[in-house]
């Protein structure tokens, strides 16, 4: 059962002087959602999160938590809590007092606030280290203390800014699983900022891909990966080839697409796209949906020149280029690759079925 409250951003804009950090962002995150704000450095993730927390003023628009407009409320009165990228623990306080700090500020008596702090430390499996100071804790342990400290206020929504960025790769995956478990256990929304698409896909119910202060796409990990809205999303999520070309003909249920090098192939007709013959369009094809070499399906007409081969274990990644297509990658299952190995310099036919062609829209940030 989900607890907490829905959070909604209504046409939110943030300007720093003349610079636009966040532009007209509208987003609804239902209660009980694990949501990741995903995008490259500087795209406005932290600013968006800080506006939700009340640590940053909003230039235009509103933020609503449940039935309350919280736009002008101070952080402590919003029902949100934030865990910072640097854990921001007080070095001179032990673990319990760090966790109990916000209750002390609220005037809660010592026995009650320490009891509540111990309860939070149990939740994050840190009660056995309650007397240590931050310097006596590992990075992963400090991270849990910071988490307990954010949760002690019983927030409706927990905001986390790159909470895994300081951890080594193995710990990252372990703590990631713990965060997800904790979110399910508490039932409130976690809103987690990350620049890692892998992290976002592993954790999220809802992935919000940002670029240049705008939302490019919001959806489940599967929607965002399989049906990227824009070329930016397809490239950022990875494992897609983005090809720019032109529509040459539109049939009843398919259309023909031509790349600048002259090769053409069929794609499903996208009636909602309103495309007309002659118009430029970008498409995406997943790198694991391309067939290489003899026996490839006819009707594609693109031949690639192998530029690089990387062995990735279960898969072999083959990089190619073709006339009018600068960069093209194909993931071949290991067994299939070694049944018909390729070398750099080989020319190979490329093919995919029309169903594997996904038509992209123009980016809102463009
Ligand atoms: P992200 O967290 O996605 O890396 P930020 O939200 O931190 O991005 O930043 C978004 C944009 O706003 C960037 O261009 C950044 O330089 C700018 N910015 C962030 N904070 C400030 C600030 N306090 N003053 C001026 N510009 C800022
Ligand atoms: Mg940031």
TrEMBL record:
<dbReference type="GO" id="GO:0005524">
    <property type="term" value="F:ATP binding"/>
</dbReference>
<dbReference type="GO" id="GO:0043190">
    <property type="term" value="C:ATP-binding cassette (ABC) transporter complex"/>
</dbReference>
<dbReference type="GO" id="GO:0022857">
    <property type="term" value="F:transmembrane transporter activity"/>
</dbReference>
<protein>
    <submittedName>
        <fullName>Putative spermidine/putrescine transport system ATP-binding protein</fullName>
    </submittedName>
</protein>
<comment type="similarity">
    <text>Belongs to the ABC transporter superfamily.</text>
</comment>
<dbReference type="InterPro" id="IPR027417">
    <property type="entry name" value="P-loop_NTPase"/>
</dbReference>
<dbReference type="InterPro" id="IPR003593">
    <property type="entry name" value="AAA+_ATPase"/>
</dbReference>
<dbReference type="InterPro" id="IPR008995">
    <property type="entry name" value="Mo/tungstate-bd_C_term_dom"/>
</dbReference>
<dbReference type="InterPro" id="IPR050093">
    <property type="entry name" value="ABC_SmlMolc_Importer"/>
</dbReference>
<dbReference type="InterPro" id="IPR013611">
    <property type="entry name" value="Transp-assoc_OB_typ2"/>
</dbReference>
<dbReference type="InterPro" id="IPR003439">
    <property type="entry name" value="ABC_transporter-like_ATP-bd"/>
</dbReference>
<dbReference type="InterPro" id="IPR017871">
    <property type="entry name" value="ABC_transporter-like_CS"/>
</dbReference>
<keyword id="KW-0067">ATP-binding</keyword>
<keyword id="KW-0813">Transport</keyword>
<feature type="domain" description="ABC transporter">
    <location>
        <begin position="7"/>
        <end position="237"/>
    </location>
</feature>
<dbReference type="GO" id="GO:0015697">
    <property type="term" value="P:quaternary ammonium group transport"/>
</dbReference>
<dbReference type="GO" id="GO:0016887">
    <property type="term" value="F:ATP hydrolysis activity"/>
</dbReference>
<dbReference type="Pfam" id="PF08402">
    <property type="entry name" value="TOBE_2"/>
</dbReference>
<dbReference type="Pfam" id="PF00005">
    <property type="entry name" value="ABC_tran"/>
</dbReference>
<keyword id="KW-0547">Nucleotide-binding</keyword>
């Amino acid at each position: 059962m989900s607890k907490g409250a829905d959070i909604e951003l209504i046409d939110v804009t943030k300007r720093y002087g003349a610079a636009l950090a966040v532009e007209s962002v509208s987003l609804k995150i239902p209660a009980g959602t694990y949501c990741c704000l995903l995008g490259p450095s500087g795209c406005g993730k932290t600013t968006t999160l800080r506006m939700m927390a009340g640590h940053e003023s909003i230039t235009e628009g509103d933020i609503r938590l449940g039935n309350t407009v919280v736009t002008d409320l101070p952080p402590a009165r919003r029902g949100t809590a934030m865990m910072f990228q640097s854990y921001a623990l007080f070095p001179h306080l032990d673990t319990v007092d760090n966790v109990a700090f916000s209750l002390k500020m609220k005037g809660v008596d010592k026995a009650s606030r320490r009891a509540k702090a111990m309860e939070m430390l149990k939740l994050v499996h840190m009660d056995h280290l309650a007397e240590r100071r931050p310097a006596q804790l590992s990075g992963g342990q400090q991270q849990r203390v910071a988490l307990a400290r954010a949760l002690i206020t019983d927030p409706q929504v927990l905001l986390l800014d790159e909470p895994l960025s300081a951890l080594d790769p193995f710990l990252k995956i372990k703590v990631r699983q713990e965060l997800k478990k904790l979110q399910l256990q508490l039932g409130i929304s976690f809103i987690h900022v990350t620049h890692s698409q892998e992290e976002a896909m592993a954790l999220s119910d809802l992935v919000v891909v940002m670029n240049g202060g705008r939302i490019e796409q919001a959806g489940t990990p599967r929607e965002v990966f399989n049906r990227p809205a824009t070329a930016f999303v397809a490239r950022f999520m990875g494992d897609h080839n983005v090809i720019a070309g032109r529509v040459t003909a539109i049939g009843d249920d398919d259309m023909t697409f031509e790349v600048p090098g002259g090769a053409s192939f069929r794609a499903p007709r996208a009636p909602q796209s309103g495309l007309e013959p002659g118009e430029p369009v970008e498409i995406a094809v997943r790198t694991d949906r391309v067939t290489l070499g003899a026996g490839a399906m006819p009707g594609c007409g693109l031949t690639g020149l192998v530029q690089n081969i990387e062995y990735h274990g279960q898969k072999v990644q083959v990089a190619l280029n073709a006339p009018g297509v600068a960069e093209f990658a194909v993931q071949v299952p290991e067994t299939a690759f070694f049944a018909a190995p390729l070398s750099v310099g080989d020319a190979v036919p490329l093919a995919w079925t029309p169903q594997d062609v996904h038509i992209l829209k123009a980016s809102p940030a463009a």
